[in-house]
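This section describes the prediction task in plain terms. A model, or a person checking by hand, is given the sequence of a single protein chain and must write out its three-dimensional structure as a string of tokens. No templates, partner chains or ligands are provided. The sample shown here is typical of the held-out split.
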Amino acid sequence: MLHAALWQLNADLARHLQDHPFVRGLGDGTLDRQAFARYVAQDAFFLRAFTKAYALAAAKCNNLHHARVFHELMTGVMDELQLHRSYSVSLGINLDQVVPYAATMAYTNFLLRVAWHDSLSQIIAAMVPCMRVYRHLGQQLAVSLRPDHPYKAWIQTYCGDDFGQLCGRLESLLDELATDQSAVRDVYRYAMQCELDFFSAPLDDGPSSRQR
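The expected answer:
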């Protein structure tokens, strides 16, 4: 299956993500609270762009079933944003006044550029890494859960069945609609790198953006 082949091709970046200081701190609960607050704000900004990319993908569908799947995926993003809203209260952040980091802008600009100008298969390939990365990290970090874990809700969300089903739906669309070609590989790889930059930004207030 294409989604599995692309994930395997980018196993090096997946390992870097799993070993990332932000992810390690998230897993063992030692992540600085302010770094997590910065992450939540940036992720809320990102998810709004992710929703737009889903909508643009749905608009390019000639198949009503495919469009319906994208609608379901947009609903899933709305559920994620509810998690962020709950965090915003406890962390004292305003999700409606987020100033995006360079890494966040690089990622969202890339996604929306692909969604506007490229093929449906490329759009899906650009979006799958975010879903697969979060699913993978959620499952990996679940082994370290404890009753008093400060980031328990985050881990449970992304290791849970609901998110797993959404991830599977998007990967199934990739397998159905895309073929293994350089354009698909390139956007998938770039999105994986964007994930790395995205997790780095809350630790150092944002690395310089990468250009596609």
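For orientation: DSSP finds ten helices and no strands in the chain.
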